[in-house]
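Protocol step 6 of 9: fold each sequence in the batch and record its structure tokens directly after the sequence line. For illustration, a two-sequence batch is reproduced in full.

Sequence one:
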Amino acid sequence: MVDQSADSSFPVLPTPYAVRFPEAPAATEAVDVRIEGRWEHVLLSDRERLLALPGLYDQLVGEMLRCRAPKQAIGLFTSVLADRDIPARHLSVIDLGAGNGVVAEELRRLGVDSVVGIDVLPQARVAADRDRWGMYDDYLVADAAELSKTDYRRLIANDPDVLVAVAPVGQHDLSTKAFATAFNAIRTGGWVVIDVRDELDHSPFAQMLRQMTQLQVIRMEATKRYVQRLNVDGETIESVAIVARKLHDLPQSLVAPHAVTMDRDNRNDPITTRYSTLRSAGTAITLVACVTVTVFTLLSRQDTRQTVLDGTGPLSEQQETMMADSSSATDATVTPAGNLPSEVTPAITPSTVQPDVAPETPEENLPAVQAS
């Protein structure tokens, strides 16, 4: 078994499990773990099983696979706060997908005043109480996409101004609706700290992040590409840590599949209202224009076969121009603050995200995984 990384957020375990890694690459990440005298096949995506076995999550993900997500993401946030001379002690955080509290531990080291965790798995709260007691002011066992009014009041009880969504294994199971509910629960002007994997570029979550930037729902403050962890085959997995500022609540129109989300004041979403009005106005203008052009064509005795529907004549060009004008309000872009290059958006591709800090050299810092 490899030695623990110097920047790992996970504790060294006194009695580690025996773990066998796959001999050949597989489509799904999994290992064999010796539990009570027998070998059990455990998927890395099976968070419930990983968290149920005391110490296994920290040993496998944190120590053996060298996960750096919590420390890197919160470290980037720490740098942003320091650059702006903002004290962490007054911050109130929502930890979305809290798990066993590894992110909350980093937040407490930063000095934040309040942390409320939320996770859909009952076993996650059990693991947090077992592994990192006292890290949370409150811990909700609930699906953020389907919160009751009581749970929502608990979520916003400490007036949160920071949302952290950092998943050491990946954001594959983070729904856009769950993120939207937690995002709208924090104050306008608050902070968002997330970690995104490159291969999620076309996922609903990554697409929503791009739209949030384009519509100025968030403003990108800092990004950092880094080696998140090793996979079970010993290969490095890169991630991008993102720190952004919340400018507005998330419009319901961006949440797939058009789910209704709660906002902290139970008010109508001003952005959704604005763009709904623009779309309605654009439709009305287009209909009036079509009628006017058709009448003009008949009066001038031109060929009536050339109509708005044939898509070949000047009338279709006029219609395209009007449609472009009516939708131009949704094409806004954000100029990232500070020293970030203008092309940095949540597109999360190697060609667009520029690291603030040169990524670590995997060969020097990340020895290959060895089976115990």
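Sequence two, same batch, same settings:
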Amino acid sequence: MKTEVEIQLIGYWSELVNTLEINDKLAKKYWNSLIQCYRGKNRFYHNLNHLVQLMSMLEKAEGVSTITTIATFYHDVIYRPGSSMNEKKSAERCRNDLVEMGVSETIIQSAREMILATRHHIPNSKDMELFLDADMSILGSNSNTYLDYQRAVRKEHHHLPECLYDRGRWRFLQALLGSNRIFLSNYFFKTLESQARENLSREMRGISNKYSKNFLLCKLIKP
């Protein structure tokens, strides 16, 4: 039996493949392939729920398009925690699938660029701006949802010793809080920026407090 999340995603996928005029056999083949990737046993955050959340935020921001929908489905299709190749491999998987489905080169290239942009978050269009912000929108969620996100991401990185994981998180949080804007688009900046900064600051304080009595570990986490 399909879950509510899967039913929502099937709706988005069906609308996409109808727009692209992809035949039913290929549409079903690649839907099944995608969903198996996002169902991976070690995907606690980068899973089907993340796709639904992203699409929901795009709808609210009026940022749903053929390209942003493709990018949503494929941007984390290849995901190995800590790997610097996730975006590139996901973009190539997207390209290969779309070529076989007969999608135009123009659409393929645009979707590929959008997926690759999730690595450095430098947009070149309004649609890309909205997509990148929607992908990061969890940062501006309420405090309980943000805590669930923290726990899920930590579980995805369970192989890392706590101090090394905390060092990586500290640098990630520090970089975001040091930027002029976490969210690039006006819509997400107005609706989520303040809450995101509150969440990130609270997480940083938690890490800082954890190591405040151990000078050597504190220097490791906060060089």
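Proceed to step 7 once all outputs are recorded. Observation for sequence two: Residues 24 and 47 are 24 Å apart (CA to CA).
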